[in-house]
Amino acid sequence: MSANLKDRPGVDEIDEEPVGRPPAAALPGAIVGTLIGFKDEGRTPLVLFAGQRGTAAVVARATVDLHGTHIGRQVLLVCERGDATRPIIVGWLRTDEGQGLADAPGNVEVDADGERLVVSAKEQLVLRCGKASVTLTKAGKVLIQGTYLSSRSSGVNRIKGGSVQLN
Predict the structure, then answer these.
(1) Percent of the chain at pLDDT exceeding 70
(2) Do 67 and 24 fall into the same domain?
């Protein structure tokens, strides 16, 4: 059947090793490795796993969002076409001694129903872009900072508070 597929237009080298690459050790199925860090300013994960060539970290791709808190954790890897030089992180493994999802640092709750978007944080929520920021705190403070602040309204523009200070 694969001979018939190869004869079809647009189908080339089905399940064959890419040209110019040395043959690699085949690693069938999923394997467990360790996320040891990142390169390229945190965009490229580095892993170690049994069956890899050499002892140096291997550059990996990921299907999940990884953070600095995952460094040192075990990750689930699959290798593209069984090639140990092309690992893909498909998840990270939870441990009993680890924190629960609700207690994880940096955890936020997001609820979007198409009508409204709610973003919640336990202590502080910060929106930042360049020199501008809006900070909401657990104590109820709203802090707006920037190099230029503009407030416009086609209707009433009301400032109301226990006290209002201008300059």
Answers:
(1) 71
(2) yes
